[in-house]
Design goal:
With 137 residues, the chain is of the alpha/beta class. The protein has two helices and six strands. A hairpin with a 4-residue loop joins strand 3 and strand 4.
Length: 137
């Protein structure tokens, strides 16, 4: 019997959100089969967050945000996703030339399957414009 143990890295006061990574529907098979055609679904990398988290953080769709984990930090446009639950944010790995998502992810793998734990790491999200003005972080 296999028991679910949850992610290795849990959110806390400094990193209160869980980042999960994955693929978007329109980028089937890492984009090899779909990357060469125009689609209204293609919009580049974003940090997707719930309307509740966006409101709490004062972030609107398109705003630049700084996403920070214990391993790194990056700036990316925000995108409000009505399907996300509060406390969870999402990014893809589709645009490594634009956004190096894996600087955020945790370097841990499942002891049974060997699968890398790209699906859950603790992050904090802040409006990048506010950080530029006050010089912090």
């Amino acid at each position: 019997m296999v028991r679910h143990e949850g992610p290795v890295e849990k959110p806390d006061a400094e990193y209160p959100l869980v980042l999960t990574t994955g693929r978007r529907l329109e980028s089937f098979n890492t984009g090899v089969q779909t990357g060469s055609y125009d689609s209204p679904l293609h919009f580049g990398e974003t940090l997707d967050l719930s309307p509740e988290d966006a409101t709490r953080l004062g972030i609107a769709s398109g705003d630049p945000v700084r996403v920070t984990s214990r391993r790194g930090s990056l700036v990316v446009p925000a995108r409000i996703d009505l399907g996300l639950r509060a406390g969870t944010v999402f990014m893809t790995l589709h645009f490594p030339d634009e956004v190096t998502t894996n600087v955020l992810t945790i370097d841990v793998s499942d002891p049974k399957s060997g699968t890398a734990e790209f699906k859950a790491c603790a992050v904090r999200v802040e409006p990048a414009a506010a950080l530029a003005h006050d010089g912090k972080r």
